[in-house]
Design a protein that fits this description.
By secondary structure, the protein is α/β, with parallel strands linked by helices. It has 9 helices and 10 strands. The protein folds into 2 domains: 2-185, 3-Layer(aba) Sandwich (Rossmann fold), CATH 3.40.50.360; 190-270, Alpha-Beta Plaits. The protein has helices at residues 13-27, 63-71, 96-106, 144-165, 176-187, 189-194, 211-215, 239-243, 264-270, and strands at 2-7, 31-36, 49-57, 60-61, 79-87, 109-118, 199-201, 221-224, 227-230, 249-251. Strands 1, 2, 3, 4, 5 and 6 form a 6-stranded mixed sheet that branches. The chain has a two-stranded antiparallel sheet with strand order 7-10. A two-stranded antiparallel sheet has the order 8-9. Helix 1 packs across helix 4 and helix 3 (96-106) crosses helix 5. 42% of the residues are buried. The protein binds flavin mononucleotide. Flavin mononucleotide binds at residues 9-14, 55-59, 86-89, 92, 119-123, 126, 236-238.
């Protein structure tokens, strides 16, 4: 079986989990390709099983991923898939899975399974929540604790793909109430993006290295003489805030809260940096 996972990862946690899943699938004798949606033009016909993976942002999957799915043509034959969602707090993926299931159903893509795992909280304000999350247990999820979960999920996928191929597909239950909650959460995003969570730049710290502009998944940052300029197309993923090596980009509401950049090398390796416009 060849698995192709189309993913978005703003700060590297979703990617770190997928790398564990890829390793588990390969150990079980199956190929797995991880494709960042920023780089993908469409789906490869080569993959037998598809994956769609995203962090959870205000109870919703990332817009970069949902836009990618919307642009896909309807597949001629039904194609099997799974969803992977990485949230900062366990259980807060809400109806993200239903949002993706709806979009994928329109493209004749059948969702067989969902993987939900916890990643380090990347929202500087929400990062406070980790101190109150039972069992959070430290920094840097996903980590060694998540490997067994990935292995189990890889085995489950192999079974489900086998059943799908022999004409006995199983699909996930659909939870419309949770989808409503997700839509409510996601509707806050544009408002928060423009107000409390508008970006700020500390010009004394900024070295104008341009990493923020290069890593922005939607090309919403350009560099001026004075430093980064943020455009309206920003989707609020906070990749720039968390990954600036100087900690020069902040949010209006949480300038003093902590942020992290430890997964920069992982992301740099996974994403061929685009040419700056
Ligand atoms: C704007 C924003 C909103 C977020 N909203 C949620 C949320 O509603 N629930 C949650 O559990 N985590 C939330 N998070 C945390 C991320 O889902 C989490 O940190 C995830 O590990 C990020 O994955 P990544 O490193 O692959 O981007 C949010 C993060 C950001 C930046």
């Amino acid at each position: 079986m060849e698995v192709g996972v189309y993913y978005f990862s703003a700060t590297g946690n979703t990617l770190a989990g997928l790398l564990m899943l890829k390793q588990a699938l390969e150990e079980l004798g199956h190929a797995c390709e991880l494709v960042p949606v920023e780089k993908a033009c469409g789906l490869s016909g080569q993959h037998d099983l598809l994956g769609f993976a995203s962090p959870v942002f205000y109870g919703q999957p990332a817009k970069v991923l949902t836009d990618f799915i919307r642009r896909l043509p309807r597949q001629e034959k039904p194609r099997p898939a799974f969803i992977a969602l990485c949230s900062g707090v366990k259980g807060s993926a809400l109806g993200s899975r239903e949002i993706l299931m709806d979009l994928l159903a329109n493209k004749n893509i059948w969702v067989l399974a969902e993987l939900a795992f916890v990643g380090e909280e990347s929202h500087p304000l929400l990062r406070r929540l980790r101190y109150y999350t039972p069992g959070y247990g430290g920094d840097g999820r996903p980590d060694a604790r998540d490997k067994a979960v990935m292995r189990c999920f890889a085995e489950k996928l192999i079974g489900l793909y086998g059943a799908f191929s022999s004409g006995k597909p199983t699909t996930l239950p659909y939870r419309s109430a949770l989808k409503c909650l997700s839509l409510l959460g996601g509707s806050l995003m544009p408002l928060l993006n423009r107000s409390l969570f508008a970006k700020t730049v500390d010009v004394d710290k900024c070295t104008k290295c341009g990493l923020c502009a290069l890593l922005c998944p939607v090309d919403a940052i350009s560099l001026s003489e004075a430093g980064p300029v943020f455009h309206a197309s920003c989707t609020g993923c906070l990749r720039c805030v968390n990954l600036c090596p100087e900690g020069a980009i902040g949010l209006r509401a949480s300038e003093k809260l902590d942020r992290y950049n430890r997964r920069v090398p992982l992301l740099r390796e996974a994403i061929t940096l685009p040419t700056r416009r």
